[in-house]
Give the backbone structure.
Amino acid sequence: MRSARYTAPSWTNIKGKNVQALFKTTPGTPHTITKYDYLVSAEAEVGRRLITEGHDANTVIRTIEEKANQ
């Protein structure tokens, strides 16, 4: 069984890896808000509520899909 204590990461596992590639990337463009975003955010909130109430993932997806198709 693994120890519950936190141990610092070992830097030996990245030896020989191209670590500089992490710093050479450029971030993507931010999301452009559309007139439909408020609909999606409302349905996502319904999904969050259903999950916290203990519904399974398939029920949550089906419920959101039914509400979206109305």
In short: The chain has a mean pLDDT of 83. The CA atoms of residues 3 and 59 lie 37 Å apart.
